[in-house]
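Page 37, top half.
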Amino acid sequence: MVTAPRTCHVKTRRSLSMAARKTKLIGIEDAARLFGKSVHQMREYKSKGLLKVADCLGNKDLYDMAEVILLKHLIHEMRVTEGLSLSQISRRLDQMMGRAA
């Protein structure tokens, strides 16, 4: 089975220079390592709208490392203290951060 190469549909933020942003972008493998989760679980987080793509390099999604670390702590806190599901956490984060669902 032949599939077309995946293209990234994220507007790049390169107009803001990388040096000015001081943002470290990481791949999904590194994000999974920071979370202590598998790449498969990180893709589930992405599909539920929890993990947002910051930029792309070719067909590779890149994530803001600081956002990944913050997200890890927020998800843990909401799951432990409030018992929220991943879908509920995604909705709550969208409300908190004014993100588009």
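Page 37, bottom half:
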Amino acid sequence: MNDPARGEGRPRGAETVVDEYFARLARATAASRTEISAEELTELRTHIQDRLSATRGTAADAARVLDELGTPESLARAFADAAEDPASAGRSSTGRLLSVPYDVRPPTADRVALRVWNPTDPRVLVPKAFGMGWTINFGALAVKAHLVRPDDEDDAFAAVPEGVVTATLAAPIAVLVAFGVLAATAWSGLPATVPVHWNGAGHVDGYSSRGAAVLGLALLAVVPVLAAVWVHARRRAPFNRVVASAVSLAFAVMSVAFLAQTVVSARGGTGMWATWIGIGGFLILPFLLLVATSRLGSAAERRRDLPTTSTKGRAQ
């Protein structure tokens, strides 16, 4: 069982309690020959950090949070039972179908965040957190572009100022407002039936009613933004909140682009320029948001560690 590097953002007392728990868990899984993946361990640590963020972070707080999980031995048995459950045979919740990965487990904020931003994973395309196919690991892209390093942060985004974490939500909300403005101004000029699908050459080959088309695109924009607002409102870990902002930004941008494409085509325009711009925005804007926030966090972490390093140097 490979245990990922522990976070450094908690007081030493809580950190020691958590590390001792994971050490016991490692011994228990080794004794039972149970395999817990690095991703599952990371999700477990992220969950613990998220719960501790709502406390003072003392050793007693850590003990209470870990009590919710049960003893390391019982948790290891639970993983072993899940792996050997005959009822699950033949219908695994994760796997591959015709070489395409799938995951039908209920999605969690931790799993979604780890798939979207994981600089320690060199794969650019990773299995979706829910559904079939792949999603983009922006963290791997950032490493390949030499914009971040895999070990830049001990705990992703943990050192980012609270105000900056909250401010990341402004980006998808601003794009959502732009969608509303475009829909309101273009509505009266749209015919009852509007284009909603185009072939590879850019020619319209599908139509829908005006109301259904705009409503569908509105849901594509609004639902992810509301999900991001919920993650922020629940005061989840900075990692979860920043990634939620980035994901909702991507969907909001695509919604605006598709609406613009519909409006242009309904007015007799040709070409797919609005869609191509939207695809570019879908990829680039969340990437820039994540990279910029990560670099802010790395810089803040270095500034925080500098006094400690300087003090040690003077003591020597």
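Margin note: The chain has a mean pLDDT of 82.
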